[in-house]
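[audit] Reproducing an earlier prediction to check determinism. Same input, same settings, fresh worker. If the tokens differ from the archived copy the diff job will pick it up downstream; this log only records the rerun itself.
[audit] input (116 residues):
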Amino acid sequence: MQGELEHRRVKRFYSRTNKNNVGSQIAKHERRERLLRAISRRREGSADNLSAPEPEASRVSLNFDVSEALPPTPPSQHHHISEERKHHLNIPTWLKENEGDLAVQVRVNNKAVNAY
């Protein structure tokens, strides 16, 4: 039974490839899946240890139940920014607070540089 399940798994990875150098592409998909599972297990384990929710100031996004009403946006307009100031974020302060986070690093000429 395990052999058949593994065969189905490899077939699923095969359909995600561009059919060139299939073996290495399947291996990459397999590694990604293993890493994502490990991350998920770690997050589940760390979620048990958390007693207080993350402060809203350090979050990058807002909850979906918190919204700002926006009037309709014309299709020709590239973006739409709310006029409300209810949910604001001081970006330089936020970058300084998160300077150790890899998400706020920028690569310039293959060298990691802090975004602030």
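[audit] rerun output stored. Observation attached for the diff report: The CA atoms of residues 16 and 26 lie 8 Å apart.
[audit] end
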